[in-house]
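Give me the fold.
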Amino acid sequence: MNNIRHTSIKKRLVGFVEYFILIFCSLLVIIPILWMVSTAFKSEPETIKIPPNWIPKEPTAASFKRLWSEYPFLSYFKNSGIIVFGSMILSTIAASFAGYGVTRFQFKGKQAFLTFTLTTQMFPSIMLLIPYYKVLSVYNLSNTLLGMMLVYVSFTIPFCSWMMAGFFKTIPLELDEAAIIDGCSRFTIFYRIILPLTLPGIAATAIYSFNTGWNEYMFAQVLINDPSLKTVPIGIAELNGQYKILWNDMMMASLISSIPLIIVFLFFQKSFISGMTAGAVKE
Protein backbone atom coordinates (compact mmCIF):
# COMPACT_ATOMS: atom_id res chain seq x y z
CA MET A 1 0.00 0.00 0.00
CA ASN A 2 2.84 2.35 0.91
CA ASN A 3 4.63 1.48 -2.35
CA ILE A 4 1.51 2.34 -4.37
CA ARG A 5 1.12 5.64 -2.52
CA HIS A 6 4.83 6.41 -2.98
CA THR A 7 4.57 5.68 -6.73
CA SER A 8 1.49 7.91 -7.02
CA ILE A 9 3.23 10.81 -5.26
CA LYS A 10 6.30 10.35 -7.44
CA LYS A 11 4.18 10.48 -10.63
CA ARG A 12 2.42 13.64 -9.45
CA LEU A 13 5.76 15.25 -8.63
CA VAL A 14 7.18 14.35 -12.04
CA GLY A 15 4.02 15.66 -13.71
CA PHE A 16 4.24 18.91 -11.74
CA VAL A 17 7.88 19.42 -12.75
CA GLU A 18 7.07 18.69 -16.41
CA TYR A 19 4.19 21.19 -16.44
CA PHE A 20 6.34 23.78 -14.68
CA ILE A 21 9.08 23.44 -17.31
CA LEU A 22 6.54 23.64 -20.15
CA ILE A 23 4.89 26.74 -18.69
CA PHE A 24 8.25 28.39 -18.05
CA CYS A 25 9.48 27.72 -21.60
CA SER A 26 6.16 28.90 -23.03
CA LEU A 27 6.41 32.17 -21.11
CA LEU A 28 9.93 32.72 -22.45
CA VAL A 29 8.44 32.63 -25.95
CA ILE A 30 5.12 34.37 -25.33
CA ILE A 31 6.24 37.32 -23.17
CA PRO A 32 8.50 38.92 -25.83
CA ILE A 33 5.70 38.55 -28.40
CA LEU A 34 3.15 40.18 -26.07
CA TRP A 35 5.63 42.96 -25.33
CA MET A 36 6.13 43.53 -29.07
CA VAL A 37 2.37 43.80 -29.62
CA SER A 38 1.96 46.12 -26.65
CA THR A 39 4.80 48.44 -27.72
CA ALA A 40 3.51 48.59 -31.29
CA PHE A 41 0.35 50.37 -30.11
CA LYS A 42 2.03 52.77 -27.66
CA SER A 43 2.81 56.42 -28.22
CA GLU A 44 6.47 57.42 -28.34
CA PRO A 45 6.60 58.89 -24.78
CA GLU A 46 4.97 55.78 -23.36
CA THR A 47 7.60 53.48 -24.91
CA ILE A 48 10.32 54.98 -22.70
CA LYS A 49 8.22 55.38 -19.57
CA ILE A 50 9.63 53.91 -16.35
CA PRO A 51 8.12 51.78 -14.95
CA PRO A 52 6.72 50.53 -18.26
CA ASN A 53 3.07 49.75 -18.88
CA TRP A 54 2.21 46.28 -20.17
CA ILE A 55 -1.06 47.55 -21.59
CA PRO A 56 -1.00 50.93 -23.38
CA LYS A 57 -3.11 53.51 -21.54
CA GLU A 58 -4.03 55.22 -24.81
CA PRO A 59 -3.59 52.70 -27.66
CA THR A 60 -2.77 54.33 -30.97
CA ALA A 61 -2.26 53.17 -34.55
CA ALA A 62 0.05 56.09 -35.38
CA SER A 63 2.99 53.72 -35.88
CA PHE A 64 1.00 51.70 -38.40
CA LYS A 65 0.16 54.84 -40.39
CA ARG A 66 3.76 56.09 -40.32
CA LEU A 67 5.09 52.80 -41.71
CA TRP A 68 3.20 53.29 -44.96
CA SER A 69 3.41 57.08 -45.21
CA GLU A 70 6.91 57.97 -43.97
CA TYR A 71 8.81 54.75 -44.73
CA PRO A 72 8.92 52.76 -48.01
CA PHE A 73 7.70 49.55 -46.35
CA LEU A 74 5.41 48.71 -49.25
CA SER A 75 8.51 48.51 -51.46
CA TYR A 76 10.29 46.42 -48.81
CA PHE A 77 7.42 43.94 -48.72
CA LYS A 78 7.30 43.74 -52.50
CA ASN A 79 11.05 43.04 -52.73
CA SER A 80 10.93 40.42 -49.98
CA GLY A 81 7.92 38.78 -51.61
CA ILE A 82 9.60 38.53 -55.02
CA ILE A 83 12.85 37.13 -53.59
CA VAL A 84 11.27 34.73 -51.11
CA PHE A 85 8.53 33.31 -53.35
CA GLY A 86 10.97 32.92 -56.24
CA SER A 87 13.55 31.13 -54.10
CA MET A 88 10.82 29.01 -52.48
CA ILE A 89 9.57 27.76 -55.86
CA LEU A 90 13.07 27.03 -57.18
CA SER A 91 14.17 25.32 -53.95
CA THR A 92 11.06 23.15 -53.81
CA ILE A 93 11.43 22.03 -57.44
CA ALA A 94 15.15 21.28 -57.09
CA ALA A 95 14.68 19.50 -53.75
CA SER A 96 11.88 17.36 -55.19
CA PHE A 97 14.06 16.16 -58.05
CA ALA A 98 17.01 15.60 -55.72
CA GLY A 99 14.94 13.70 -53.16
CA TYR A 100 13.42 11.48 -55.83
CA GLY A 101 16.80 10.82 -57.44
CA VAL A 102 18.67 9.74 -54.31
CA THR A 103 15.85 7.42 -53.18
CA ARG A 104 15.04 5.84 -56.55
CA PHE A 105 18.43 5.47 -58.26
CA GLN A 106 21.69 3.81 -57.35
CA PHE A 107 24.78 5.66 -58.55
CA LYS A 108 28.43 5.90 -57.67
CA GLY A 109 29.15 8.44 -54.97
CA LYS A 110 25.56 8.55 -53.75
CA GLN A 111 26.46 8.43 -50.06
CA ALA A 112 29.26 10.94 -50.56
CA PHE A 113 26.79 13.26 -52.28
CA LEU A 114 24.33 13.02 -49.39
CA THR A 115 27.10 13.59 -46.84
CA PHE A 116 28.46 16.58 -48.73
CA THR A 117 24.98 18.06 -49.05
CA LEU A 118 24.47 17.89 -45.30
CA THR A 119 28.00 19.11 -44.58
CA THR A 120 27.35 22.36 -46.41
CA GLN A 121 24.91 23.29 -43.63
CA MET A 122 27.68 23.11 -41.03
CA PHE A 123 29.67 26.10 -42.31
CA PRO A 124 28.96 29.52 -40.76
CA SER A 125 27.09 31.75 -43.19
CA ILE A 126 29.61 34.56 -42.77
CA MET A 127 32.25 32.37 -44.45
CA LEU A 128 30.23 32.33 -47.67
CA LEU A 129 29.53 36.04 -47.82
CA ILE A 130 32.64 37.06 -49.78
CA PRO A 131 32.40 34.13 -52.28
CA TYR A 132 28.75 34.98 -52.92
CA TYR A 133 29.62 38.63 -53.48
CA LYS A 134 32.44 37.70 -55.89
CA VAL A 135 30.28 35.29 -57.91
CA LEU A 136 27.39 37.73 -58.18
CA SER A 137 29.75 40.51 -59.24
CA VAL A 138 31.29 38.36 -62.00
CA TYR A 139 27.87 37.57 -63.48
CA ASN A 140 26.49 41.11 -62.98
CA LEU A 141 23.92 39.86 -60.48
CA SER A 142 25.14 41.91 -57.53
CA ASN A 143 22.56 44.34 -56.19
CA THR A 144 19.68 42.60 -57.99
CA LEU A 145 16.61 40.71 -56.80
CA LEU A 146 17.53 37.76 -59.04
CA GLY A 147 20.96 37.55 -57.45
CA MET A 148 19.46 37.48 -53.96
CA MET A 149 16.97 34.87 -55.08
CA LEU A 150 19.77 32.58 -56.27
CA VAL A 151 21.70 33.12 -53.03
CA TYR A 152 18.70 32.06 -50.95
CA VAL A 153 18.15 29.05 -53.21
CA SER A 154 21.75 27.94 -52.71
CA PHE A 155 21.54 27.70 -48.94
CA THR A 156 18.01 26.30 -48.69
CA ILE A 157 18.31 23.48 -51.26
CA PRO A 158 20.59 21.19 -49.16
CA PHE A 159 18.27 20.89 -46.16
CA CYS A 160 15.17 20.90 -48.37
CA SER A 161 16.65 17.99 -50.34
CA TRP A 162 17.17 16.01 -47.14
CA MET A 163 13.60 16.70 -46.10
CA MET A 164 12.23 15.54 -49.44
CA ALA A 165 14.49 12.47 -49.47
CA GLY A 166 13.14 11.45 -46.07
CA PHE A 167 9.60 11.76 -47.39
CA PHE A 168 10.27 9.88 -50.64
CA LYS A 169 11.67 6.99 -48.59
CA THR A 170 8.21 6.42 -47.10
CA ILE A 171 6.70 5.79 -50.56
CA PRO A 172 7.01 2.11 -51.64
CA LEU A 173 9.23 1.36 -54.62
CA GLU A 174 6.54 -1.05 -55.84
CA LEU A 175 4.59 1.95 -57.17
CA ASP A 176 7.47 2.83 -59.48
CA GLU A 177 7.90 -0.77 -60.58
CA ALA A 178 4.20 -1.17 -61.35
CA ALA A 179 4.19 2.06 -63.38
CA ILE A 180 7.29 0.96 -65.34
CA ILE A 181 5.57 -2.32 -66.23
CA ASP A 182 2.61 -0.28 -67.51
CA GLY A 183 4.99 1.60 -69.81
CA CYS A 184 5.32 4.92 -67.95
CA SER A 185 8.48 6.96 -68.30
CA ARG A 186 10.51 7.99 -65.26
CA PHE A 187 9.34 11.59 -65.50
CA THR A 188 5.70 10.49 -65.81
CA ILE A 189 6.10 8.31 -62.73
CA PHE A 190 7.66 11.19 -60.82
CA TYR A 191 5.18 13.85 -61.93
CA ARG A 192 1.88 11.95 -62.02
CA ILE A 193 2.27 9.18 -59.43
CA ILE A 194 4.94 9.89 -56.81
CA LEU A 195 4.87 13.68 -56.55
CA PRO A 196 1.15 13.95 -55.63
CA LEU A 197 1.85 11.62 -52.70
CA THR A 198 4.53 13.96 -51.37
CA LEU A 199 2.39 17.08 -50.97
CA PRO A 200 2.97 17.25 -47.18
CA GLY A 201 6.72 17.08 -47.81
CA ILE A 202 6.48 19.76 -50.48
CA ALA A 203 4.52 21.97 -48.09
CA ALA A 204 7.12 21.48 -45.36
CA THR A 205 9.94 22.27 -47.78
CA ALA A 206 8.17 25.38 -49.02
CA ILE A 207 7.51 26.64 -45.48
CA TYR A 208 11.14 26.11 -44.47
CA SER A 209 12.38 27.94 -47.56
CA PHE A 210 9.88 30.78 -47.05
CA ASN A 211 10.78 31.21 -43.38
CA THR A 212 14.53 31.18 -44.07
CA GLY A 213 14.33 33.76 -46.84
CA TRP A 214 11.81 36.05 -45.14
CA ASN A 215 13.91 36.44 -41.99
CA GLU A 216 17.35 36.62 -43.64
CA TYR A 217 19.24 39.85 -42.94
CA MET A 218 23.01 39.53 -43.34
CA PHE A 219 23.22 38.63 -47.05
CA ALA A 220 20.54 41.16 -48.00
CA GLN A 221 22.35 43.90 -46.09
CA VAL A 222 25.69 43.25 -47.79
CA LEU A 223 24.62 42.24 -51.31
CA ILE A 224 21.98 44.95 -51.84
CA ASN A 225 22.96 48.61 -51.95
CA ASP A 226 20.09 50.09 -53.92
CA PRO A 227 17.54 51.56 -51.44
CA SER A 228 14.68 50.60 -53.78
CA LEU A 229 15.66 46.90 -53.56
CA LYS A 230 15.96 46.55 -49.79
CA THR A 231 13.98 43.86 -47.98
CA VAL A 232 11.81 43.89 -44.85
CA PRO A 233 14.54 42.87 -42.32
CA ILE A 234 16.77 45.68 -43.60
CA GLY A 235 13.89 48.16 -43.39
CA ILE A 236 13.20 47.18 -39.78
CA ALA A 237 16.88 47.51 -38.85
CA GLU A 238 17.04 50.99 -40.38
CA LEU A 239 14.39 52.18 -37.92
CA ASN A 240 17.21 52.07 -35.38
CA GLY A 241 18.39 55.65 -35.86
CA GLN A 242 21.72 57.21 -34.89
CA TYR A 243 20.29 59.50 -32.24
CA LYS A 244 16.88 58.01 -31.48
CA ILE A 245 15.15 54.64 -31.67
CA LEU A 246 11.43 54.67 -32.44
CA TRP A 247 10.54 51.51 -30.54
CA ASN A 248 6.86 51.70 -31.37
CA ASP A 249 7.55 51.96 -35.12
CA MET A 250 10.08 49.14 -34.94
CA MET A 251 7.73 46.85 -33.01
CA MET A 252 4.85 47.62 -35.38
CA ALA A 253 7.07 46.79 -38.37
CA SER A 254 8.13 43.55 -36.67
CA LEU A 255 4.52 42.69 -35.92
CA ILE A 256 3.41 43.26 -39.52
CA SER A 257 6.37 41.34 -40.94
CA SER A 258 5.54 38.32 -38.78
CA ILE A 259 1.96 38.08 -40.07
CA PRO A 260 2.86 36.30 -43.36
CA LEU A 261 4.85 33.69 -41.43
CA ILE A 262 1.98 33.12 -39.00
CA ILE A 263 -0.56 32.76 -41.81
CA VAL A 264 1.61 30.33 -43.78
CA PHE A 265 2.31 28.19 -40.73
CA LEU A 266 -1.30 28.13 -39.52
CA PHE A 267 -2.53 26.91 -42.90
CA PHE A 268 0.21 24.33 -43.46
CA GLN A 269 1.29 23.33 -39.94
CA LYS A 270 0.00 19.74 -40.29
CA SER A 271 1.86 19.27 -43.55
CA PHE A 272 4.95 20.90 -42.07
CA ILE A 273 5.05 18.57 -39.05
CA SER A 274 4.33 15.56 -41.26
CA GLY A 275 7.11 16.50 -43.64
CA MET A 276 9.62 17.18 -40.87
CA THR A 277 9.03 13.77 -39.27
CA ALA A 278 8.87 11.80 -42.53
CA GLY A 279 11.43 9.04 -42.58
CA ALA A 280 12.06 9.34 -38.83
CA VAL A 281 10.76 5.80 -38.24
CA LYS A 282 12.57 3.04 -40.05
CA GLU A 283 10.28 0.28 -41.22
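The radius of gyration is 24 Å.
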